[in-house]
Every structure is written in C-alpha cells, then in structure tokens.
Amino acid sequence: MSSDARPVGAEPAGGPEETAPSVGATADEIFELQEEIDQLKQAITSHAVVDQAIGMMVALGRISPEMGWVVLREVSQRTNIKLRNIAEMILIWGGKGDMPPDVRAVVEDTLDKYGPTQIPDGPSDP
C-alpha cells in the first residue's frame, strides 16, 4: 500500500473538507454572510412587489405580462424613480387609491401607449 492511500469512502485531496468554511469562522466572515443573506431577502421581496405591479398593469391595461414589464420600466425611466419604488406606488394605488398625480399621469399615458385599442372579445367599432 502506498503512503497516499486513503480509507474507503474518504474524499480525495482538494475535496469538500478543504473548501468548506471552518467551524471557527471569523466575525468578518459572519458579517459578510449576514449582509449577503439580507440582500437576498430584499431581492426576493422586491421581485414579489414588481411581479404584483406587473399583474396590476396587465389587468388595468389589458396587456401581456411582457408589456406590463415594459410599462413599469418606461414609467420608472420617465419619472426617474427606481422601478421597485414605482411598483410599490402602484400597489398602494391599487389598495388605497393614492398616487402622486404626476406619476399617475405617466402610468396612465404609458398604459394608453401600450394598451389595446379595444376590449378583447368586445364589440368592434362600427
């Protein structure tokens, strides 16, 4: 048997035990990991808010989800407000009816721009 023989089932050199964090992680490592967890939690929450706002744009404008995303993005660009914040405003608008008039005007104009010209399955114009 050679000197580099390992017991059956042992990991080869460079295996997980060499890449796994040590049990005695430093305070800096713990802090960095906590920051990463916090950022991931915020990303998940922001994603859910944006998805709900897209759903409202779909319902209000009778547009596809893809166009709902385009509407949110354009409103964000035209108002110079972060997309996540626009999404939050739209959800508040849906629940309470409150939205800054200038932002509401941009939302309505943008929905008009991308929305259908007639109600789906509705009577056509003569």
UniProtKB/TrEMBL annotation:
UniProt region (Disordered), positions on chain: 1-24
UniProt GO molecular function: RNA binding
Domain ANTAR as annotated: residue spans: 30-91
Pfam families: ANTAR
Superkingdom of origin: Bacteria
Protein name: ANTAR domain-containing protein
Species the sequence originates in: Streptomyces sp. R21
Phylogenetic placement of the source organism: Bacteria, Bacillati, Actinomycetota, Actinomycetes, Kitasatosporales
